[in-house]
């Protein structure tokens, strides 16, 4: 399964994956998933936005859902998402080979646009499914080419009118997501999640005055690039001071000409911290430094939160049950957002398993996990499913 | 003429012009020019890359060429380029109305891709015409979509095989370019150029390591955005210290995703100074600070000069002759590059006239000149042409 899926959407130049939601490569990965489900005689259910759950066991009852996502960040790694989907299918195979018969259904899920790499909204599929993102707002989201989600769905043959809170969640008694760890926090092959850090995406729009790069005195300029540059350095410094994370990884410059002082720089801040208060004070500190510099540069600044997810503390009872099943596996928080966080916040008992990441590198073609650790992840997931569906 | 040309290639949202070389809007402006020449019974000659000179007066002799360019920077103003072309045609009309008969031919020129906004090479047409940019290198230049100049020429119906040093220059006995001033250095309606500052475009490639924006410790990152940000601030500071200009107006970020530490930031530095030595020491100072920061960030830096034009001192004799004709018009240098600089460096006696810019704003939709000053520019150009072609 790993070898077959590894080829889908891989950029031959960078080795990274480009599987934005509803793009041909992501659709190819989805068709691969449907083929795998068909081979296993799993009953696939879909919701309006295209989230999928493939069921094994008693029908029409609530059960244990596992799985993850098949989309990727731009130039992402092979493991983030697909490891959870492939491990879920492999765990079903293991349990069947053992002759296990679940007393409640086990579902293998694939949730759409978890990374938000195309429409800018992380966990798009799970947020819509859980009803925390209204359909009208979701359908109006646009990608970088100006294509709306509604138009993308129509192109994919999906009626946008069906988008909304998902009936799939009615059968999601418990959700367990297996995922590659994305830092260097896990030294054992497999661990259990305690919490997801709060996470915000904020759009910083720096406005200035376009001008000639050769003739305009430095003193006469209102250059938003300078305000942005100082803000990027301030974000780094403030995140270090707070033991948090702050990243400017995406930029758009107007007019983006070599010999023109820019009229506008738009920059997206990704900020995360261990708790909500720290995240708020981090954003406030960055915004304060940016505003002060804007006054000095004669530029303008607008900060718009595009998405802010509060801290998710996974329920302690379920977490401890997983730790017991896994003979005392280590417990750790994560700075990465996941559909599991959305489902947990929506009141579904949710847990996560992490597979060790030896380098801590993720959202990069260099993302990696040892095959032995991945197989230990499959074993752990099978043991957890067996316990929850016994 | 001004009203007709003002509508061509104007973005209705920004009010700025988008007339990159060989784009439909730039072609439309060129066809407008050809129509104007036909109306006046001027004899148009073209060279291999598409530079045009429309002749009035005795044929087959060397004469006085004036004119400018019709292309624009991205979101540029109405005056930069077109003012020189329109004023040249208007000056011919004035001289004819007076009954003036030139003893040597007067040519009205329109030179292609002066701004370099499409293929990244300023003064592309004049550099190829003067033989300072080899045809092979010019034809291999690519625009941001990866289209080569050779391909763009073929699309425009021009055979790339004809690109090379231009026979038009054999008849260019003198060249006089009228241009809107681009700083605030001119307080009279019309002035005469002393020199063009040396000007370099340098590509700074900052390399780092893509990673997850949420899970990667700040201390573990190799984030090229930070190295770039510090370099942009350093460039501003060093330019102020040197009384020079340094601008980072164009950026490209990979993968440019909100939740990924970038793997690479490419940034273009536009740097200019009053003399070659100051420009060199400015670049050295910026590169030194960037290199030191790269060491600290664990990132890499490569600096590639894309084009460097040395200082142009226009010949004093011709300059003084213009000042005399214009009753002691002020003399001033410019930080902006021009085809006049290329022709002067190629040994053609060259001069420039500037029309006052009340705000100093250029390369911007807000670029502006008073109509009275523009008309004074036409009168001045007519007087100069009359003197040089008498």
Automatic annotation (TrEMBL), chains A, B:
InterPro entries to which the protein is assigned, alphabetical = Amidase_Cbmase, Bact_exopeptidase_dim_dom, Peptidase_M20
Name the coenzymes or cofactors required.
Zn(2+)
One protein family per Pfam: Peptidase_M20
State the source organism's domain of life: Bacteria
- The entry's allantoate-binding residues are 201, 259, 272
Lipoprotein as UniProt keyword: no
Record-stated family: Belongs to the peptidase M20 family.
Which keywords does this chain's UniProt record carry? Answer: Hydrolase, Metal-binding, Zinc
Q: Does the keyword Metal-binding apply?
A: yes
Under Gene Ontology molecular function, one entry of this record is: metal ion binding
Q: Which residues bind Zn(2+) 1?
A: 69, 80, 179
Q: Which organism is it from?
A: Kribbella steppae
**How is the co-factor bound, per the entry?**
Binds 2 Zn(2+) ions per subunit.
Protein name, per record: N-carbamoyl-L-amino-acid hydrolase
Give binding positions for Zn(2+) 2: 80, 115, 363
């Amino acid at each position: 399964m790993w070898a077959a899926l590894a080829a889908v959407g891989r950029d031959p130049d960078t080795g990274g994956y480009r599987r934005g939601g509803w793009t041909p490569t992501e659709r190819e990965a989805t068709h691969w998933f449907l083929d795998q489900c068909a081979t296993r005689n799993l009953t696939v259910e879909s919701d309006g936005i295209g989230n999928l759950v493939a069921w094994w066991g008693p029908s029409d009852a609530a059960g244990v859902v596992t799985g993850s996502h098949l989309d990727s960040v731009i130039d992402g790694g092979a493991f983030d998402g697909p490891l959870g989907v492939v491990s879920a299918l492999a765990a079903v195979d293991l349990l069947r080979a053992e002759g296990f018969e679940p007393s409640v259904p086990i579902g293998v899920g694939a949730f759409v646009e978890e990374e938000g790499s195309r429409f800018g909204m992380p966990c798009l599929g799970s947020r819509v499914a859980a009803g925390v993102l209204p359909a009208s707002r979701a359908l109006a989201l646009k990608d970088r080419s100006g294509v709306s989600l509604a138009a993308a769905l129509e192109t994919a043959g999906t009626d946008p009118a069906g988008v909304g809170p998902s009936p799939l969640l009615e059968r999601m008694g418990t959700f367990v997501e297996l995922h590659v760890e994305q830092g260097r926090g896990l030294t054992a092959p497999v661990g259990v999640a305690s919490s997801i850090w709060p996470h915000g995406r904020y759009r910083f729009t720096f406005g200035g005055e376009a001008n000639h790069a050769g003739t305009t005195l430095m003193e006469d300029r209102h250059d938003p690039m300078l305000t942005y540059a100082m803000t990027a350095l301030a974000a780094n410094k403030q995140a270090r001071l707070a033991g948090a994370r702050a990243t400017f990884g995406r930029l758009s410059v107007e007019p983006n000409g070599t010999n023109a002082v820019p009229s506008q720089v738009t920059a997206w801040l990704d900020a995360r911290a261990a708790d909500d208060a720290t995240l708020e004070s981090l954003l406030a500190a960055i915004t304060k430094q940016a505003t002060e510099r804007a006054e000095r540069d004669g530029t303008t600044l607008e900060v718009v939160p595009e998405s802010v997810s509060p801290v998710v503390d996974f329920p302690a009872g379920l977490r401890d049950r997983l730790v017991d099943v896994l003979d005392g596996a280590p417990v750790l928080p994560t700075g990465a957002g996941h559909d599991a966080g959305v489902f947990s916040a929506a009141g579904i008992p949710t847990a996560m398993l992490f597979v060790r990441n030896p380098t801590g590198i993720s959202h990069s073609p260099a993302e990696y996990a040892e095959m032995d650790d991945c197989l230990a992840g499959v074993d752990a997931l099978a043991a957890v499913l067996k316990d929850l569906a016994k």
